[in-house]
Amino acid sequence: MTLNPALDAITQRITDRSKDLRAKFEARTERYKTTEPRRKKLSCANYAHVVAASTENDKLQAALDTVPNIGVVTAYNDMLSAHQPYHNYPEKILKAARKVGATSQVAGGVPAMCDGVTQGRGGMELSLFSRDVIAMSAAIALSHDAFDAALMLGVCDKIVPGLVIGALSFAHLPVIFVPAGPMSSGLPNPEKARIRTLYARGEVGRDALLAAEMASYHGVGTCTFYGTANSNQMLMEMMGLHVPGSAFIHPHTELREALTAAAVERAAFTAANGKQPACLADVLTVKAFVNGVVGLMATGGSTNHALHLPAMARAAGIILTPEDLNDISRIVPLLARVYPNGSADTNHFHAAGGVGFVMRELLSVGLLHADVQTIWGEGLGDYCREPILQDGKVIWRDLPEASGDEAVLRPITNPFSVEGGLREMKGNLGIAVSKISAVKPEHQFIEAPCAVFDDQDDFLAAFKAGNIPDGDFICVVRFQGPKANGMPELHSLTPSLSSLLDQGRKVALVSDGRMSGASGKVASAIHLTPEAKDGGPISKLRSGDVLRVDCENGTLSFIGNEASFLAREPAVKETEVDGLGRELFAPFRRVVGAADEGGAVFW
């Protein structure tokens, strides 16, 4: 199928804009390429340190020039349900490596915090910065330069983007991402949302809320709503970094074990001294990132990727902007409805056909770049199929022609919407993004007075006290950007604002903070840049100012005398950001880039 002309034009625009930066990235990659084992460049003393703790047999194997040594970077911890299955992956990987004539070693671990635990707490202010810490930790792990390939073990929110950024400093190596799979389905998502709203209104107690939450998050694996973690897994498939079809296979199943072994075998095969050398730089191209954005829009994925995709792309020498995301969203139909964009969870999505179905449909109308290199080889054909076990071995078969459930997943001829789920918002307040895939059309436009809060806790206190304006209003929560406090997610606002929407009022949120994949049904203009800490227009707003949030046309504006508004003195918030480790990140807050450029500390 011929590539969609608009997608072709956007891709070319990104390529042209990134020409010099990408050339610099590719030159660095070339400097570090070699077909010799990396450890052969080490001195004898250096090499002795590498294998000192290995078995005698592995030491002998590692000494052979033809034996690839695979470095494993793991985000294992047993507090995160999604990462708990990784606890015995190093042993599994080593056994699989030995079977294919390779060796493996855990190169290092990276931190993995849970936004679901820190939500509404001080620790959430470290969340976005944890992505860049993970990138640096991955770089430290691989800096020993003793590995011929790498496997990255990570699933959740900031972990996968951080691992990608870190891996791109070693783009001369083949790098494969190894998922662990989602937890089994628990309490239906609409019921969970209902209990949360009732609790926000004070109509049920904490005991009912806790029971609902425990029934939702109840086992090992990724949380099953379509937030950032599961959007990560979709992206790794779309961008060709997974073994095909491995994103949403459950932990502790034979198929999951076989797919992990397949990743090890592929890493050994494509190692610098393997049978078919490959490298990450050849996989993560402009076309791969465009494919990732297309997948995000087609599935209604997390708004966090409006931050992560530009940051990951920048590490690959590619300049990706909110305008690119917006323009791709305009031409890509929404094919999936997964909570919070619908009632189904990721298990239902996968059973209906999953990522492979989405990719096949998009390819059929030229809305993906088919001519890409993946960790699996040339093109996306195998990613449009599904893995199964046959005689104990994993094989790939064609997916059914029809969706298994059109309430969850639809063909390209009958999408849920002719456009994707993300919108760039522009106006005299700056640049923001809005996730509209879960917002009903009648809720996508609001012009109303605003109520301004300098912290989400201030809004929640006002809500509980009944001090929220009557009628339609726009909630402004500012001083939540990267420089102010690390840009925490503001999920705590969702139940309260949703309850006001359910009362028949028009409500919207404007913030320089984040909302993530759980942004829900309230129109939200988030990631607003310039942020309040930088004296952006949001810092000049006063309660009672009339604002317009128009998601359909992508406008975000102060309504009134603009010159008088912009002449106002900006509000200042000089609170100490400390405790729970936040004081250690003061240098990050000083140097972090703007949200529309990825909110990273590196560039």
From TrEMBL:
**Reactions catalysed:** 6-phospho-D-gluconate = 2-dehydro-3-deoxy-6-phospho-D-gluconate + H2O
GO MF term (any one): phosphogluconate dehydratase activity
Q: What class of enzyme is it?
A: lyase
A cellular component term from Gene Ontology for this protein is: cytosol
Q: Which HAMAP family match?
A: Edd (MF_02094)
Q: Which family does it belong to?
A: Belongs to the IlvD/Edd family.
Q: What is this protein called?
A: Phosphogluconate dehydratase
Q: Which gene encodes it?
A: edd
